[in-house]
Every structure is written in C-alpha cells, then in structure tokens.
TrEMBL record:
It comes from Ectopseudomonas guguanensis. Pfam families: Aminopep. Keywords: Aminopeptidase, Hydrolase, Protease. The lineage of its organism: Bacteria, Pseudomonadati, Pseudomonadota, Gammaproteobacteria, Pseudomonadales. This is Predicted aminopeptidase. InterPro entries: Aminopept. One of its GO terms (molecular function) is aminopeptidase activity.
Length: 353
C-alpha cells in the first residue's frame, strides 16, 4: 500500500460498518459520520454489467472489471464462497482510500485500545471515512499519552450486510492482488468470528492463497514470482522487534529509562532493516518510507494478524480432503469452541502441519 502501509497489512480489514452503527455510541457525531460515509458508498455503486456494456467506459477499467467478474464467478463455483451481488458492483469514491483506521496503544504496551460492538466483537481500531477526522481523533488520544497510528484502507467487508462493491481504491493493485482481495473479502462473508481478528484474518488469508493457487491452475497460468520472500523477511524483522519490546515493557525499569530504551529499540529496528536491505535485497527496499517515518507501538499492531494461523488452516483443509464445504464446516466448528480450546486446537494443527 503506498504511503501509509507498504505491506498490505491494512488493505482489507473486515470493518463491518453496519455493526459499528449498531454499537453503543461514544459520540453521536462519530456514528453519524459512519452512517453518512456508508450511505455515500452505497449510493455510488453501479452494476458492473452496465459499465461493461457502455462504450464510454475506460478501456483499462473495463479490462479490470471483466477480470473481477471472472474471479467472482470462480469464487462461488470453485471455492464455494457466497453467491450474491458483492463485487458485481463498482463505485468510484474519488479518493485513494475508502477508510482510515486509527490504532492506539498505551506508551509502554503493545496491547491495542479495543472498540467493542455487538456484531463485530472487539476490534483494535476505529474507522473513519475522512482522514481529517482520524487525525483529529488521534490528536486527542495522543494528549492522553497514547501511541497512535493511522493507516489508509483500500477495501473492507460489511460481512454480507450490504452488497460490497469493487472500488476505485483497488485499481492501483496488480491483477494478482485484485483477484486475491475478492477471494479474501468473500471469505469474511463465508465465516466471521466476532472478537478474534487473528482467526478471521488468517482464515481469509488462507482462502485467498489457496484460491489463487487454484485460480492459476484452472487458467493454466504460472503464478507471478512476486516478492513474498522480501515481505516475509520484513515481517519477521518487525515481529522480532515487537518481542523485544514486550520483554522491555514487562521489566521494572523506571519510566524515564524505559522511554529511552523504547526509542533505542526503534533505532535498532531501523539499523537491522538497513542491514537486511543491503545484505539480502541489493540495496532496494520496498519499506524505506515506512521504516524511516516515526515509529511507535501502535504502528506495529497490524503485524502478524494475517499470518498467525494460516498454516493451521492449511492443515485443516488437508484434513478435510481439500473439500471446501467440509473445510468451512470445520472452521465454523472451531469458531464455536471456547477461546482457550480454539487456540489449543489451532496450535495442535500448527504442530501437525
């Protein structure tokens, strides 16, 4: 993602806006803003088939829309994902991101400030349709001594409450990523467990990756080489820094010394990144802007959410004979387990992977 998040960690959070609107209000203004933003998005939708039939439609847009409909058909017929009008519509919002997510943590903690809602459960961010509103909210939290981070989001799911459209914000992506996100977002509609972001995102990420593998195989294509190795190395670098910060915050250092040690850790992360870039990437780093901009706890929150349980879901898919219907039933059964039992079952699947 350009500018705000270079590694796709914020691109597609399941942000069920209807669920937010049904939640207990912190301010009427905030929820009125969400309602207006969602209404504007719905109002901007146009049927893809109408745009494809219109000779005035831009040729490149038409090509991407045709690709999206092929992927949409594949998702339902081959991956057994929901068949509805989601991604059969298109909306041009005239801006680079559909929403901006605001993350916040205490100064000496990597635990997010949670926002809980009756349908979505507890999530680690608040969404805003206007960047200025997100910045204003971040300033208020900073006055309370919290670390904050704002990330632009190019797509989100309403979990089937509305027919989610394709968005102009998605058109900057490669064809590969464009198709992947359709699979990912429809997976959120297939199953969503309120209050467990790592479970939901790992499940949808597995569906996306296996779906892409099957998509390319069905089309006789070789998957693009991509830069997964560089991305994974960067994530591992950040997760190692997070682990060191966790140990620091669990120590009994005085506040002044802990604050200095925190900043020293962020400088270490920058040094490690520069060394990795020179050693492994021939001096070409995708993440320079991210690493050189201000770092804090909140900026590290999204890392690991998408990948934590992906191998466990892959193992579960194999256990179910690679049958999508059986796999989704097994995922739903996992979701019905108590939290501790579910995590233990996922950990067991990881060990058997």
């Amino acid at each position: 993602m350009p500018n705000t998040c270079p590694i796709d960690l914020l691109r597609r959070f399941a942000v069920p806006l209807l669920a937010l609107l049904l939640g207990g209000c912190s301010t009427i203004d905030y929820y009125a803003h969400l309602g207006q933003g969602q209404w504007q998005l719905l109002h901007a939708r146009q049927p893809v088939e109408r745009l494809l039939a219109d000779p005035a439609t831009d040729a490149d847009l038409a090509r991407r829309l045709r690709l999206s409909q092929q992927a949409r058909d594949f998702a339902s017929t081959q991956l057994q994902l929901p068949e509805n009008r989601s991604y059969r519509l298109y909306a041009d919002l005239g801006r680079p991101f559909v929403v901006w997510n605001l993350f916040a943590t205490p100064e000496f903690s990597l635990e997010p400030e949670l926002h809980c809602f009756p349908i979505a459960g507890c999530v680690a961010y608040r969404g805003y349709y206007q960047q200025g509103r997100a910045r204003g909210a971040a300033a208020l939290l900073q006055q309370q001594g919290l670390d904050t981070y704002i990330g632009g989001v190019e797509a989100y799911s309403t979990l089937g409450w509305f027919d989610d459209p394709l968005l102009n914000t998605m058109l900057r992506w490669s064809d590969e990523r464009f198709v992947a996100v359709i699979f990912h977002e429809l997976a959120h509609q297939q199953y969503y467990l309120p209050g467990d972001t790592a479970f939901n995102e790992s499940f949808a990420t597995f569906v996306e990756r296996e779906g892409l593998r099957q998509w390319h195989a069905a089309r006789g294509e070789t998957p693009p080489a991509g830069d997964d190795r560089q991305r994974q190395q960067f994530i591992e670098l950040v997760l190692a820094s997070r682990e060191r910060l966790q140990q620091l915050y669990a120590s009994d250092l005085p506040e002044q010394a802990m604050r200095a040690a925190k900043q020293a850790e962020f400088e270490r992360l920058r040094r490690d990144y520069r060394a990795l870039r020179q050693r492994e990437w021939a001096g070409q780093g995708r993440y320079d802007a991210w690493i050189e901009s201000p770092l804090n706890n909140a900026k590290l929150l999204p890392f690991g959410l998408y990948d934590q349980w992906v191998p466990a879901f892959a193992a579960l898919f194999e256990q179910q004979g690679r049958d999508w219907h059986a796999f989704y039933a097994a995922v739903a059964a996992l979701g019905r387990l108590p939290d501790a039992d579910r995590r233990a079952r996922l950990a067991s699947l990881l060990q058997n992977d």
